[in-house]
Queue: 4 jobs
Job 1
Amino acid sequence: MRLSVYFLLFSFFVASSYSEENDIKKSQWHGFERQDFSSDGLKCILVIPASAAKDSPWVWRARFFGHQPQADIELLKKGFHIAYCDVGGLFGNEVAVDRWDRFYNILTEDRGLSKRPALEGMSRGGLIIYNWASKNPKKVSCIYGDAPVCDIRSWPGGKGKGKGGGGTWKSALKAYGITDEESVKAEVSPIHKLKPIAEAGVPLLHVVGAADEVVPVEENSAIIEKRYRALGGTIKVISKPGIGHHPHALKDPKPIVDFILKHSLKD
């Protein structure tokens, strides 16, 4: 009798966990099953491979889901899940990090995915991937940044040579609860948060356009590269001559795919 009660309680717990994923909408995404759902107040997307690789590795996409998806598609073919959790308008702040903490728990505890995803951030997506990784360095296998924003003063602040984000700057200041004047010394950006990531030995890959006028390389990825190497970290930068902020990624995604495979799959 006691065992029956325990079984019922366990079944209820499992059912409750999945019932929190409200209104799962299934569709096809480049030939793979896509699930859109809400859970714990989060708006989520999960694309499922036909056959998951050992330990269920996954790529955690930050912002602009589906843009330049060639690397994601190739990784799906190799058994990776592709995941997304909306943190729009938060610029990688503490609220965004908290959302990602909760989404991580959903995918690793409820869905059984790997405890160490690969993080992928295009443009402003660079803010959340680094800010989350800095708080959770041992939960990250590797980081791929594509023309990533690494300092809010550069974008959307426009405090350097870049074009800035216009009115978006006010939104970023509000997200961090700081003033324009305070932003000069506020250490809220990825360039300030590299030490824990380097100490955890997380490898980095940045793909950048050498002529980027929106997120200038010298104000973002070049600073990450210099500081990360000084901290003893490993980083590779692929620079595209004559290319601006767009197009993102690489026509042939092999270097990106190989990087993520190398650091995500274990024999």
Note: The chain has one domain: 23-264.
Job 2
Amino acid sequence: MGQKVHPHGLRLGIIYNWSSRWFFSNKKTYRESVYEDAKIRKQLMDKYSYAGVTDIMIERAIKKITVIIYSVKPGMIIGRGGKGLEDVKKIIVSHIKNLKDEKQKQSRIELKIEPVKKPYTHPYYVAQSIAEKLARNFPHRAVVHSTMSRVMEAGARGVRIQLGGRISGAEISRREKYFKGTIPNSTIRERVEFAKYPALTKSGYVGVKVWICQA
């Protein structure tokens, strides 16, 4: 059987940087920080999915934690007068253990919201948009082909989309693969990004996987 590897993990440390950037020599602190970052990232991605969050970077220093959120619609996170930023900080604070009190935690958190200029070059946003349309019973082939055209128009070299499950309410689950352009799986110097997202349809979950080769 062919052995599969995550495209981002294959290139990590070569052309991609880590999503969490910090270092601890203490094993317990290291373990807790990894777990905290995972919880923060998952909750923010789930809560602000409507804002098109594509990635979250977390940097830790001795007395400071910097969280960078990349969003297609940053205004929906920031809110009127920046009120939304306080909600984001509360979520982050709720997962951090190594600071003494809430005021101290909030003062040590630096929050940055970065806009995403070309959303259709980010596989997570593409997979999420496909999943949302499938959940609303849009024809899957029309959705996939129109999405691939938008990805190529945004400047990508290639795109691959895979659907798996009871597609369009079929009795038997199946997988369908769609390609456009070039997707080199093993060439490390190529910027290939990958993401997956579940689509909850009336017939059950349909998995959406997206690979995009950046220009």
Note: Strands lie at 20-21, 53-60, 65-71, 109-115, 158-165, 174-181, 192-201, 204-213.
Job 3
Amino acid sequence: MKFGITLLAGLVALAAGTMARADYPEKSVTIVVPFSAGGPSDKIARDVAEALREPLGQPIVIENRLGAGGTIGTARVARAKNDGYTLLVHHIGLATAHSLYKDPGYKIDDLEFLGLINEAPSTLIGKTALPADDFAQLKQYIADKDSSINLANAGVGSASHLCSLMLQSTLKSNMTFVPYKGTAPAMTDLMGGQIDIMCEQATNSIPQIESRKVKVYGVSSMQRMSIPALASVPTLDEAGLKGFNFSVWHGLYAPHGTPKPVVDKINAALRIALKNPDLIRRQKALAISVVNDDRLSPEGHRAFFEKEAARWSDVIKNAGIQPE
């Protein structure tokens, strides 16, 4: 008799859990952005959240939990309840965190991969007073001045930091890295002439390029951008840095153990969201390409991530950077 009651209770609990997953989502969903409000990752997350609202049928709330190169917000999601109501939008920095920090507060296996969202190039920009009008002149200027050149970035683990590492390695230079707490103060000092150059996401640099507040020397993608502000700007590859290819990508994640039916629902909603014409138009205006290949699947996203993590582990080791 006891066995029968126990079995019945177990079946009821299982059915309730299955029903809950079938009804997902029944309330608003929170997307954690581990960076500051108004930054490129925040803008992307808000665009995606708006596009996800209709296919998920619930409001999407953005929570900015910044600090330590994105690791604080990521750890928050890794520890969250795995019910699909707390998600994470993170960029390329997720693939470098374990190479830059001894203990970022989570393991990659603490997360479920839901799909790659987009990718975008960075731009190599400089203060207007630089005596270089194209990349060839800038390259010579860097060779002449070397460590006296100040190369800004938005902080350890930021996209601009990673692009700077690749630039430094490719040029075999010894420029002085100047880390800031975010893109805004770095860009302010660049425009004010306190900093020489910066490798920054096109999303952030386009307004300054259009207003001629900075000089632009190249884009980090292998193809030129079609948007007006960057259409005439050469790629760094064609400007002389052969094979230079850097893109900032963003992905969507959930806590490990999120039920597969919920993962599948979120992935299906993401696929619909990334076909939203308004989202595509807004992203394109910022030189961002929405993903539309096998990396949009959880499995493809994870495979892409593993390759990126291995690639950046090598870059960081070769740069002589020790985990903090």
Note: The chain is about 45% helix and 20% strand.
Job 4
Amino acid sequence: MIRRIATVGGLTLVSRLTGFIRDVVMAAVLGAGPVADAFFIAFRLPNHFRAILAEGAFNAAFVPAYARTLEQSGPKAARLFSDRIAAALLAINIVLLGLALFFTPWVVGLLAPGLSDDPERYNLAVTLTRITFPSLLLVSMQTMVSGELNANGRFAAAAGAPILLNICMVVTLLFAHWFPTAGQAAAWGVLIAGVAQVLLVGIDAEKHGIGIRVRMPRLDEPTRKFLKALGPAIIGAGGVQLALFADTLIASYLPTGALSALYYADRINQLPIGVVGIAVGTVLLPEMSRRLAAGDEKGAASAQARGIQLALLLTVPCAAAAIAIPDLIMRALFARGAFTVADAAAAGMTLAAYSIGLLPFVLLRSFTAPFYARGDTATPVKAALLAMGVNVALKLALAYFGSFAQVGLAFATSVGAWINLSLLAVFARRQGFLVSGAAIGKPVTKLITVSYTH
């Protein structure tokens, strides 16, 4: 398992490093003004839906169901199951895409109402969203194929796919003078990357005989179990995305540059989340699903303990550094071109607020994995929705009614993450599969003490 985590983590690190290059180029080309704000809204909207329909809810329900079918009924049954689910996913995405493209002005106005006072940002956000939104369909199919690959123990292509997004966006931004605006250059880069990502995982899946052949859905037993798990997962993922929608909505009323500060701070915060948290979670979910399907409860618990221990050992130093020297980090990484020292300072304060919640952000996938692997998507929903309620209330209090601007939004997000993780631990303890502190070990506690006191 450690080797697989290293594979995913290594490729994710390459993805984050190329993502940093992308963000440096984007900051230099777009700056932190109205064009950048409009693009970040257009970039976030399909990402919110992707997190609900693809990487979040769908993955949580599909990977355990596919792994269980593969373990208990063999490759042919698993292939048939995935083909039928693919047809349903494709149909849902086509309908959603058509509605989104037709109602784009209304959607942008609903989710970022503060832009209505700035026609330039609003109109540009509408234009850019119509370019980026079709990437949802492409990424949804890529995520499903990636789930199949992961369940079959193949992680490289799926983990490497995000690298293509960064490469495509850098290329289009470098040739921004060919486009009407730099924002359109970035938006087209997103869409082109979606095509490239589907091709990458699709070719790898076909190479190993697990590609998708779309077939008519049938309500057989595996499909019913999948749908039963999918419903609560969608509600939970939707709750999380509502909290993120609140960021976009409230930030649209804040001064120009708030959305950009949130974006760049979140990008740095996402580095350890992606390299460690997502890498561990990506490997842990199919690993626990296979072990539980085979009746190996002890092996599943051991896998989770190893994953949590590794995540903590790698994350604690990152959190300590981001809280201690956020301004220095943001100035060193982004203060060039159209992105000023003042912009870096604003993003630095936001980074410090995000980093308070870095540990729970990283650990969430490891703590939800035992629920999802058992087909229980409802319990994580309870934790997510309760945390979301506190999160959104705190966002309004600190950023909208208070005077903490985007820093308040980031801090509220961190508080919500701690509440979410704590609730998951309580629920796991009640159900009898909370990993023990002894299994994680004293070295982690010792490292936390050293990191925060030196």
Note: The chain has one domain: 2-453.
